[in-house]
Amino acid sequence: MQAMGMRRAVMSACAVALTGCVTVTTPTKGDPFESYNRTMFTINDKIDQYVLKPVANGYVFVVPEPVRNSVTNFFSNIGDVYIAANNLLKLRIADGVSDIMRVAINTLFGVGGLFDVATIAKLPKHAGDFGLTLGHYGVPFGPYVVLPLLGPSTVRDTSGLVVDYFGNPLTYVSPASVSWALYGVNLVNTRANLLGATDVLADAALDKYSFVRNAYLQRRQYLISGGEGETPDYGEAPLPNYSEEGAVPTASASAAPASGSANTVPGNQYVPPRAPPGFPSFRLR
């Protein structure tokens, strides 16, 4: 009964979004899919508003903060395995070895990754996925695209989702029901961590779509180049400034974290365990 109610809520949100979408006759330069992107952005936003955000709020209300922090650390530790692999693929040997040491220390001394002992030991947390690896070797962004449920992405980053899926350790957890349970917990926990960010974005950005697009592209470029290089200039919302990897961005005219978009969950972060054919893939960090 509850599942049917949730399904109706999602379908209603999609219907409202579709009826309210406006066709962009002249897409912004560098964003040829803008008409589709804005429609999908609105759909994702409605799904988040009526489904994911209420669930995340309930999760925060019921689960104590120390437990939520341990859940975040647990999935972050799993993600470090794949981040290490990508850093080694990029021949960033020192970063890759550091990531492997993070996994070893947090698994052994952090009770299976529930506590982030590696950060206390001054081992930095890195970011990595196959889209970033492709960018490291010169593959261009390609057009910006908003994926169903996943949110911000590019053609390059979307093409890396298949590799990310098979590189995700949770893909190989058995039985499949355990994989799906872990994925669900991580999804809700991640959305709960972004509650404050989405509230700030809703208040700060005049055009949430443009702000999220620019912020996403700037952060991806920062992670590839370490702060060097340029992202597509759309001449619209100001880009946030990432002074440190993973830091909360600031902008000259608005302030909202790039990851805290109105799109259900941040793009390019999740891969669901053993998704059935045709089901969209997510990637765990």
TrEMBL record:
Signal peptide positions on this chain: 1-17
> Key word S-adenosyl-L-methionine present in the record?
no
Note the Pfam families from the entry: MlaA
Gene Ontology terms: biological process: intermembrane phospholipid transfer
Q: Where is the composition biased (Low complexity)?
A: 246-262
Q: Does the keyword Signal apply?
A: yes
Q: Where is this region: Disordered?
A: 227-285
Q: Gene Ontology cellular component?
A: membrane
Q: Which UniProt keywords apply?
A: Lipoprotein, Signal
Family named by the database record: Belongs to the MlaA family.
Q: What is this protein called?
A: Surface lipoprotein
Protein species of origin: Candidatus Paraburkholderia kirkii UZHbot1
